[in-house]
Specification:
This protein is mostly helical. It contains two helices and no strands.
């Protein structure tokens, strides 16, 4: 079964796409990116496809944002 939230094509090659984005944007830019992605998925959830999938995608970015905050406090 394919994961609709974090599909395999996001992990193509040796570097996962999300890690490349983080490296390119830096910590603050990456955190802003995660917040923007959360907003995007929540904004459109009721207007396309499966709302549950878009809400899960927003949740994935929220969890990633929390992870970044926790890593900063270590």
């Amino acid at each position: 079964m394919t994961d609709p939230i974090n599909p395999d094509h996001y992990k193509h090659g040796q570097v996962e796409c999300i890690e490349a984005i983080k490296a390119a944007l830096g910590r603050d830019g990456f955190m802003a990116y995660c917040r923007g992605q959360m907003m995007k998925y929540i904004w459109r959830a009721e207007h396309k496809g499966s709302p549950a999938v878009d809400y899960r995608k927003a949740e994935w970015y929220a969890n990633r944002l929390v992870l970044e905050l926790e890593l900063a406090n270590e």
